[in-house]
Amino acid sequence: MQAYQQTVSKEIGFSGIGLHTGKKVNVRIVPAPADTGIIFIRSDIPSLPEIKVSPENTTQLFYATNLEKDGVAVKTVEHLLAALSAFGIDNLYIYIDSEEVPILDGSSAPYIYLFNSAGLKRQNKKRKYLKLKEEVEVKQEDKYITAKPSDILLIRNTISFNHTYRKIRYQTIEYAHSLKNFERLLSKARTFCFVEEVEWLKSKGLARGGSLDNAIVIDKYDILNPTGLRMENEFVAHKTLDLVGDLYILGHPLLAEIEAYKTGHALNAALVREIYTQKLYEVVEFDGETETKESSVPGALGNLLPE
Questions:
Q1: Active-site hit among 20, 79, 177, 265
Q2: pTM of the model
Q3: Which of 27, 95, 146, 189 lies 20 to 30 Å from 83, alpha-carbon distance?
């Protein structure tokens, strides 16, 4: 377990387009002092408004996780936050010159390269963890997330779609959160949608920057992407990546054992909100560095179960 807070060793810059807005976006990631947290700064607005990553600033959870404060928003933050969680990065200023974080290739894989290239800087303040104190569950129809107290973040996630494409019907994964596991099991998994959703999304002003270069598009019996899947369980892996990013909205790493079934951003946010508003956690620190051992987690590679 990481004992001290971290930031990046040097500034990082990257560009891309927003998945939903279709706008070109430039991002600068800048080291920040200990106890700052993760703060987005809209550099396209003269007053440079700041939006801190916090449940209090979560809004409009519709096909993405978005933050807003005083009428200023930053959207689709989940893939970046998932990578920050995996690297154990606590403090950053993120300057962004548009309203949406670039989608890049639809996964968190580009951030692995960026943060490895920049390097990390250990800071002189202890890292704070939110350790769940009691079991909590949020539900919507047949969808649910249950979280129980644990000494690590462990996620068992299942997706199930009533669809003619066989690989999307049922997938499950068991994942113990660490940088090594994240890089190998989740980071390359891309966002996905069904072909019949595309026109509907565009009619709502969404998915304007979507393409086969940054999303998996599912047809009736297969996917449209000519390069195929990156992994057999890419769909549940991406949903788990999203969940990791959404949990980091809490502002500190969560220690909990989570079981999720057919979850999405709205349900993830409901869990975060319940934990945060009801204060179902205690703040803990650690004296020494330890690493989650993937061998101690059955099924850590994830699996596909027969129908």
A1: 265
A2: 0.93
A3: 146
